[in-house]
From TrEMBL:
<feature type="region of interest" description="Disordered">
    <location>
        <begin position="195"/>
        <end position="228"/>
    </location>
</feature>
<dbReference type="GO" id="GO:0016020">
    <property type="term" value="C:membrane"/>
</dbReference>
<dbReference type="GO" id="GO:0009003">
    <property type="term" value="F:signal peptidase activity"/>
</dbReference>
<dbReference type="Pfam" id="PF11999">
    <property type="entry name" value="Ice_binding"/>
</dbReference>
<protein>
    <recommendedName>
        <fullName>Signal peptidase I</fullName>
        <ecNumber>3.4.21.89</ecNumber>
    </recommendedName>
</protein>
<dbReference type="InterPro" id="IPR001733">
    <property type="entry name" value="Peptidase_S26B"/>
</dbReference>
<keyword id="KW-0732">Signal</keyword>
<keyword id="KW-0472">Membrane</keyword>
<keyword id="KW-0378">Hydrolase</keyword>
<keyword id="KW-0812">Transmembrane</keyword>
<feature type="compositionally biased region" description="Low complexity">
    <location>
        <begin position="199"/>
        <end position="228"/>
    </location>
</feature>
<dbReference type="GO" id="GO:0006465">
    <property type="term" value="P:signal peptide processing"/>
</dbReference>
<dbReference type="InterPro" id="IPR036286">
    <property type="entry name" value="LexA/Signal_pep-like_sf"/>
</dbReference>
<dbReference type="GO" id="GO:0004252">
    <property type="term" value="F:serine-type endopeptidase activity"/>
</dbReference>
<dbReference type="InterPro" id="IPR021884">
    <property type="entry name" value="Ice-bd_prot"/>
</dbReference>
<feature type="transmembrane region" description="Helical">
    <location>
        <begin position="21"/>
        <end position="50"/>
    </location>
</feature>
<comment type="similarity">
    <text>Belongs to the ice-binding protein family.</text>
</comment>
Length: 474
């Protein structure tokens, strides 16, 4: 019997004939097939006239992340405006906070009377500040291929460590896949006939010359040609995929849509509910049970509406204290409470990108921060939008307290309307403290003497009480 054909040589079994190598080769081939398939999905449509772009922004995480590949198709001029669709468009330099022209990926949410379009990112609290014209639209979003553009993204950012790791993993997979053992069945019939002293009928008439022919032996050792072809094809596809992924375009795109197309080719609506105050927008104070001003003749000023629902208790406020209306379980108050609860739920659906520290001070940047513990604002806390006026800050905790004279400030385009504090318990603002943003607490909300909020204070299950404080709706 030719032992080499069964992976056995003079020195024992071949190291490539064992189960570990077989499992490794199976994993390697599966990995190469996966990246080749995703690369094909991302690259092939380009030859059909679509555009492929690697997303550079993390503004829509976790639904869409840097390194995802977006495929857009040209919008036909005779078509109506793709209202509700995601489009890529050129955002001119004068519309960008940093003064640099960008390609943005946002959803068209409305059409103005002059024919321009209103766009917005799905996670942004407000629409984009500058409408766009039809000739600014590059294409309509059709497909999102997750993570496949990461190599190109790493190259663009100069991140050599993850790039080297990925290249090493892919190269190792190619080596393992190429060296995979043959799947050709071992021909046992000839060995069985030889062991029984019976001539194999398949070789009858060949004589000794045929059985001892060097060419026959070498051919058997060489492995099946089909197996070599399979390895060559797999290696070629893997190499092409690597080069294609590394060469994907890296336009400075800002992503703002959340899902890939279905099999029918239509774009799905975002899975995450948009952050929207809705009918609670005009309310400065809103509570489920009661809203009270502890010193009715003190220096309290509420620039906005006050409401309770289903409670009806609003005490200590006069016309000199409130600029808006007072709604005691009216239809308006009930609608406002419903939208406030919906906003709280939407905030809870956002996956945090960072853990919120127990003590907040210094500088924080846009993102979703969360902790299951209490949070205390101490000293000065600066929220830095990095020049993006649509940047959103979400801070989730159990109890939220602001220490005496603590101050939350905004800089570099940050807006109070895009700051959200979500507390699953109570909120306490100590004497002379200042905070910005919309506060949504499940428990009571308390403002001490001299405290100020540029935003809104909502208690979804409790009461709001203030003592000679100021609340300004942004």
């Amino acid at each position: 019997m030719d032992e080499r054909r069964n992976g056995i040589g003079p020195e024992g079994p071949s190291w490539r004939a064992g189960r570990p190598w077989f499992v490794a080769s199976l994993v390697a081939q599966s990995y190469l097939t996966l990246i080749a398939s995703l690369a094909a999905v991302a690259i092939v449509p380009v030859f059909l006239g679509w555009s492929a772009t690697v997303v550079q922004s993390g503004s829509m995480e976790p639904s869409i992340s840097p390194g995802d590949v977006v495929l857009t198709a040209p919008v036909q001029t005779e078509r109506e405006a793709p209202l509700g669709r995601v489009v890529s468009f050129i955002s001119p330099a004068d519309a960008e906070p940093d003064g640099v022209e960008k390609i943005r990926l946002h959803r068209i949410v409305d059409v103005n009377d002059d024919g321009t379009f209103v766009t917005a990112g799905d996670a942004n609290a407000d629409v984009d500040s500058t409408p766009i014209a039809r000739d600014q639209i590059i294409g309509e979003g059709r497909l999102l291929v997750p993570a496949i553009g990461l190599p190109s993204w790493w190259i663009g950012r100069g991140e050599t460590a993850p790039l080297a790791l990925w290249v090493g993993l892919t190269a190792a997979s190619l080596v393992v896949a190429w060296g995979a053992p043959s799947a050709r069945p071992i021909p046992l019939r000839r060995e069985r006939h030889a062991a029984a002293g019976v001539e194999d009928p398949a070789s009858a008439g060949d004589g000794d010359d045929a059985s001892s022919s060097p060419s026959s032996s070498e051919s058997a050792d060489a492995g099946p040609p089909a197996d070599v072809g399979r390895r060559s094809l797999l290696s070629g596809i893997g190499a092409i995929a690597v080069l294609g992924l590394a060469g994907l375009p890296r336009e400075p795109s800002s992503a703002a849509f959340t899902a890939s197309t279905s099999t029918g080719g239509s774009w799905r609506v975002a899975a995450l509910v948009r952050l929207d105050l809705g009918r609670a927008t005009t309310y400065a104070l809103l509570a489920r049970s009661s809203v009270s001003n502890l010193h009715s003749h003190g220096a309290t000023w509420i620039d906005g509406d006050i409401g309770t629902s289903p409670g009806t208790s609003v005490t200590g406020f006069g016309s000199s204290n409130v600029s808006g209306t007072t709604e005691r379980n009216t239809t308006a108050a009930r609608n406002a409470m419903a939208d406030a609860v919906a906003l709280a739920d939407a905030l809870g659906e956002r996956t945090p990108g960072s853990t919120l520290a127990p003590t907040l001070s210094g500088t924080m940047f846009p993102g979703v921060y969360a902790t299951a513990d209490d949070v205390h604002v101490s000293g000065a806390l600066t929220l830095d939008a990095r020049g993006d006026s649509s940047a959103v800050f979400i801070l989730r905790s159990r109890n939220l307290t602001a220490g005496a004279s603590a101050l939350v400030r905004l800089t570099n385009g940050a807006r109070a309307g895009n700051v959200y504090w979500r507390a699953t318990s109570s909120v306490t603002l100590a004497r002379d403290s200042g905070i910005v943003g919309t506060i949504l607490a499940d428990g009571d909300v308390t403002m001490a003497h001299g405290s100020q909020a540029t935003g809104r204070l909502f208690s979804l299950s409790g009461a709001v009480s203030i003592d000679r404080a100021t609340v300004l709706v942004p």
